[in-house]
Recover the amino acids of this structure.
């Protein structure tokens, strides 16, 4: 009887230890920050223009604090964090929308941001804003992509419009 009790206790202990380890944010993620030095593109909003700079990309990102519903690695995926700065280089106000950013990968084009990374676990999300001439803003965008993706296989897009309301894309490849 005592052996069964010890085995049962050991089993509960191990199950608890594994459950706690699974709840430690970022415990099995690389959070590989890669600074980019020359990754930029001109972007448009009707007649207004701005420069999009990709400052860094963090591969296999996972927040260190807060909770995330699900772990992308369970499905063979990863979160990536893209830090950008947008600077209004024109004379007109530039209306910046975080939802206009998309990601192209080797497997899929036009991936929108994941909402699994949000204010509860990250406080640096790029906000939509109106930028006056010469103003800039910096923030992060978060995407969920295949774990096989790398800097060489991804590029950031900004979907804007020209003065004829035609789609115009500013694109920044991550590979340098």
């Amino acid at each position: 009887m005592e052996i069964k009790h010890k085995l049962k206790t050991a089993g509960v202990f191990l199950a608890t230890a594994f459950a706690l380890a699974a709840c430690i944010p970022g415990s099995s993620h690389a959070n590989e920050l890669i600074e980019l030095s020359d990754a930029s593109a001109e972007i448009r909003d009707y007649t207004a223009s701005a420069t999009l700079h990709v400052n860094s990309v963090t591969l296999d990102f996972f927040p260190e604090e807060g909770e995330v519903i699900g772990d992308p690695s369970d499905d063979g995926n990863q979160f990536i964090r893209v830090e950008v700065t947008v600077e209004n280089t024109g004379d007109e106000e530039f209306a910046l929308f975080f939802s206009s950013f998309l990601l192209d990968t080797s497997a899929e084009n036009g991936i929108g941001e994941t909402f699994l990374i949000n204010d509860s676990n990250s406080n640096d999300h790029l906000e939509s804003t109106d930028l006056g001439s010469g103003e800039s803003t910096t923030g992060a965008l978060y995407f969920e992509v295949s774990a096989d993706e790398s800097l060489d296989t991804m590029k950031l897009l900004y979907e804007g419009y020209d003065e004829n309301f035609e789609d115009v894309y500013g694109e920044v490849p991550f590979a340098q």
Observations:
- Residues 2-23 form the longest helix (22 residues).
- Residues 30-173 form a domain with the Immunoglobulin-like fold (CATH 2.60.40.1240).
- The first strand starts at residue 32 and ends at 35.
